[in-house]
Specification:
Strand content: 25-35%
CATH architecture: 2-Layer Sandwich
Number of domains: 1
Structural class: alpha+beta
Shape: globular
Order of helices and strands: EEHEEHHE
CATH superfamily: Cysteine protease Prp
Distance between the termini: 24 Å
Number of helices: 3
Oligomer: single chain
């Protein structure tokens, strides 16, 4: 199962952590993993390469974590909330394969 945790501080999304594999189908043809991975990478790249924000990023097999300071997060809300909305839709469509949580700090 893919676990996605979005961190919220003072009503601002300040980061996310994605871990695991969906096991929806074989590696290489798993549309759930592909959808989540693609959206997560697009989000991280938009924050760093398009918006030029300073993010702490960790990427390993089956794991991605992106953190922003509250100051940087203010400028990232449209992108982060768009990703959260997308992940909510994926969780609803594939509820047996994705677990989404909001962690308020």
């Amino acid at each position: 199962m893919i676990r996605a945790v979005f961190t919220v501080e003072s009503k601002l999304v300040t980061g996310f952590e994605i871990s695991g594999h969906s096991d929806y189908s074989e590696q290489g043809s798993d549309i759930v993993c592909a959808a989540v991975s693609s959206a997560a990478y697009m989000t991280a790249n938009t924050l760093t390469e398009v918006q030029g924000l300073e993010c702490s990023e960790t990427v390993e097999d089956g794991f991605m974590q992106v953190k922003l300071s509250p100051e940087e997060a203010r400028d990232a809300q449209i992108v982060l909330n768009g990703f959260l909305l997308h992940m909510n839709a994926l969780e609803q469509a594939y509820e047996d394969f994705i677990d989404l949580k909001i962690s308020e700090v």
